[in-house]
TrEMBL record:
Name of the featured protein: CHASE2 domain protein
Pfam families listed in its UniProt record: CHASE2, Guanylate_cyc
InterPro entries: A/G_cyclase, Adenylyl/Guanylyl_Cyclase_3/4, CHASE2, Nucleotide_cyclase
Keywords in alphabetical order: Membrane, Transmembrane, Transmembrane helix
PANTHER family, sorted: ADENYLATE CYCLASE, TERMINAL-DIFFERENTIATION SPECIFIC (PTHR43081:SF1), ADENYLATE CYCLASE, TERMINAL-DIFFERENTIATION SPECIFIC-RELATED (PTHR43081)
Molecular function (Gene Ontology), one example: adenylate cyclase activity
Guanylate cyclase domain residues: 484-613
Keyword Transmembrane: yes
Coiled-coil intervals, chain numbering: none
Keyword Transmembrane attributed: yes
Domain of life from the UniProt record: Bacteria
Length: 763
């Protein structure tokens, strides 16, 4: 088969795979949950229209009025005052996203109804209640679920300009869409737009009459509107216009074209409002919300601030000609009672309130802009063409150019999708093209071109991998470099292994290693050896010396934290861990034969790191390091615990305890370390009685401390049997081990001292 034919086949397979993924319900849902989220996160917040304002019933207002933070228990005379205040300031429409389905104080209900009637522009919320009803189907009784409208109390409903529902899902799913029409009637944002648009409705109906010869029904509605528009007339007009626009697909475009050339609407706001009416009646029953940003992105004013003063000047903003939505909305998550999960839900749990979603729908309609997914045909076309293009292209590219080209294509596609989303609100599919088709086409090109997995992935893996893959090749040449070795070991592992079942021990070790491997990898190290419960990690000098040593020290501290967390989760099988670090020259390479190769370090550094780790057992510490590791590191706080000559090594080592990061040090911890080092200097000057007093004072002041206890015992021993006069302050661990074996208790601190934590000292 020729290469163009292969490319065509791969392109068609990639396209077909994308198409199947698109129609799969789970992946289709992923496009909604993940793809749309990416676009909103990349775009960020955008400015909301100034014509929309939210008056929020919140904790701040409840406290100001001295009322419970429950909107349905507020006295309705407050709402009457709010309506009067907003009407006097020129609000175009006032929409209450509050339930008024129960009568209250008759005087206050009447006062509120009079305020609503006088304003003439108030829209009230209708509650939708689900109920089960038994019906006869085919001679059998069946139970169905229906939604029933529960309007406000009759006194308030009859006074309102309109009443309408606004259903939102109270389940843990993201709200991406909102209803424009429900149960055949307009919802709260649409009715608010109708009332808001009343000054331009005559122009809208005249425009409709110019474009299409109006039906008798339209003429009747127009006549009733011009005479005395009522609540039922507005609802009937909305229902009729929606049916008219849905039945004639070309009518909306004809109206918009006529609107642009109309001379009767010279005011720009009139054009936008009439365009919004055309859009709402020609849209499907629901739309995808174009959120403006996190909660309170739409101008939001606490309820009490509207009633706090008298006169226009006391208002926080001008309400003239604006749409005002009144409802429950909080600034802090613990107080939120009416929140809905959206793309802009906050990490602290704060969601967008129902009233803000209603205001968002209204603002989207007013702007004639919402999130618009591609029509189904275009959606499938994009998926198919993208699949064909990447499959065809990948099979023609050189292997080394595949990944860079795939990255460039992903960036290019994402840029186009981002631009269309920001400028037009157009939503292109992202998940299937980028996370499904692109990897599918890439893998298909590799497998098809090279036929074997080895050839397909060889350009992307290092040479040493292939030497290990091919057992018949010679081991790679060794590399001499400077680096850090980190050795760990678990205390009291042998009795633990004896006590646990084999399967239980296997699972425990796997979880333990997972916890300590992660800090090593995160800090740039590599696990070079595992022996039972012990590991060896290395940092080879590929970066600056100081950075390399600093990362190894930080990894050691992270391992301490990870082990502490692990032991806290499994107290019955605790695995306290000792760590040792050393820096110097090492040989890095593969050790073994053709049948068994391991990538590891060889040399004095690894042996010394193991010896330093073992020294923790004698000093009762957790993390020890040689002076070579921490030289010049200002970000790591240590204390010097002495100079030691480890077994099998003639050169002494300056040993330091790795305590914490420098920014974590407090005065108590610093004083402790300074006093210890002062006592150590006294000990090294062979002033044994003074050293005894100094270390006893340290233990009395700061509690159990392994190194202090070690030197207290050793100073007591030297006070009775001083070392040779030529002693230079260096402690021979071989001598200490021999003495420990001879005395059976010797100088090794107890397990209680080994478990001592610097965190206790630093508190």
């Amino acid at each position: 088969m020729s290469r163009p034919a292969k490319a065509a086949v791969l392109g068609l397979l990639t396209a077909w795979g994308g198409f199947l993924a698109t129609i799969a319900p789970s992946l289709g849902r992923l496009e909604l949950d993940l793809g749309l989220l990416w676009l909103f996160k990349l775009r960020g917040p955008r400015a909301a229209p100034e014509e929309v304002v939210i008056v929020t019933i919140d904790r701040e207002s409840s406290d100001w009025f001295g009322l419970p933070n429950e909107p349905d228990k507020w006295p309705r005379k407050l709402h009457a005052r709010l309506v009067h205040r907003l009407t006097q300031s020129g609000a175009a429409v006032i929409a209450f996203d509050v339930i008024f389905d129960e009568p209250r104080n008759p005087d206050q209900d009447q006062l509120f109804a009079e305020a609503i009637r006088e304003a003439g522009n108030v829209v009230l919320f209708e509650y939708l209640k689900k109920k089960r009803k038994r019906v006869a189907i085919g001679g059998k009784q069946a139970e169905i679920e229906i939604e029933e409208r529960l309007p406000p109390v009759s006194e308030l409903a009859s006074a309102a300009a309109m009443t309408a529902p606004f259903p939102l899902p109270k389940v843990p799913v993201r709200v991406n869409q909102a209803w424009l029409f429900k149960l055949g009637i307009p919802t709260l944002p649409v009715t608010a737009l109708q009332v808001y648009a009343r000054p331009y409705y005559e122009d809208f109906l005249r425009l409709l009459n110019e474009v299409e010869m109006a039906t008798g029904e339209t003429q009747r509605l127009k006549s009733e509107w011009e005479t005395a528009p009522g609540q039922s007339d507005l609802t009937a007009l909305a229902i009729h216009l929606q049916k008219l626009f849905q039945g004639e697909a070309q009518l909306p475009q004809s109206l918009l074209a006529r609107l642009q050339s109309s001379e009767s609407l010279t005011h720009s706001q009139g054009h936008s409002v009439v365009a919004a009416l055309i859009r709402v009646f020609s849209s499907p029953e629901s739309l995808f919300l174009d959120f403006y940003g996190p909660p309170h992105s739409i101008s939001t004013i606490p309820y009490h601030r509207i009633l706090a003063g008298e006169g226009e000047a006391s208002l926080p903003v001008s309400f003239k000609g604006k749409a005002v939505f009144v409802g429950f909305s909080e600034q802090f998550q613990p107080e939120q009672k009416d929140g809905f999960y959206t793309v802009y839900s906050q990490p602290d749990g704060l969601d967008i309130s129902g009233v803000e979603i209603a205001a968002t729908v209204f603002a989207n309609l007013l702007e004639s802009r919402s999130v618009t997914p591609l029509p189904l045909f275009l959606h499938y076309l994009v998926i198919v063409l993208w699949g064909v293009a990447i499959g065809f292209l990948f099979l023609f590219l050189n292997a080394y150019a595949l990944i860079p080209t795939a990255v460039a294509l992903a960036v290019g596609y994402m840029s186009v999708a981002y631009h269309l989303f920001v400028s037009e609100g157009l939503w292109l599919p992202l998940v299937i093209p980028l996370l499904w088709q692109l990897p599918f086409g890439l893998l298909g090109a590799l497998l098809w071109r090279y036929l074997t997995i080895g050839k397909a992935i060889r350009p992307y893996l290092p040479d040493w991998f292939w030497r290990r893959w091919n057992r018949h090749s010679e081991p790679p040449p060794a590399q001499i470099a400077k680096g850090v070795c980190l050795a760990t070991d678990v205390q009291q592992y042998t009795p633990l292994a004896e006590r646990l079942e084999l399967n239980q021990l296997y699972l425990l070790l796997n979880e333990y290693f997972q916890n300590i491997f992660e800090p090593v990898k995160f800090r740039g190290g590599e696990i070079s050896d595992i022996r039972g419960d012990a590991i060896m990690a290395i940092w080879v000098e590929a970066v600056r010396k100081q950075s390399l040593r600093e990362q190894a020290c930080l990894a050691a501290l992270d391992i301490v934290d990870a082990v502490a967390e692990f032991n806290h989760r499994t107290p019955e099988v605790s695995l306290p861990t000792r760590i040792g670090l050393h820096y110097g020259k090492m040989v890095i390479g593969e050790v073994g034969s053709r049948d068994h190769l391991e990538y590891r370090s060889v040399g004095d550094v690894a042996n010394v790191a193991s010896r330093i780790e073992n020294l923790n057992k004698i000093l009762g510490t957790c993390v020890l390091t040689s002076g070579e590791v921490i030289a010049g590191l200002e970000s790591i706080f240590t204390r010097k615990v002495g100079c030691f000559r480890v077994r099998g090594r003639s050169q002494p080592l300056a040993i330091h305890e790795l305590v914490c990061r420098t920014e974590e040090v407090n005065k108590t911890l610093r004083d402790h370390c300074e006093q210890f080092e002062a006592a150590l200097r006294i000990f090294q000057r062979q002033r044994w009685q003074e050293a005894l007093l100094a270390f006893r004072a340290l233990l009395a002041s700061y509690g159990n401390d392994g190194p202090s206890y070690f030197y207290l015992r050793l100073a007591g021993h030297y006070a009775q049997k001083p070392p040779a006069t030529s002693w230079d302050g260096i402690i021979d661990l071989g001598y200490v081990e021999e003495r420990r074996k001879a005395t059976r208790s010797g100088l090794t601190v107890t397990a209680e001292h080994r478990e001592k934590s610097w965190k206790k000292t630093s508190m």
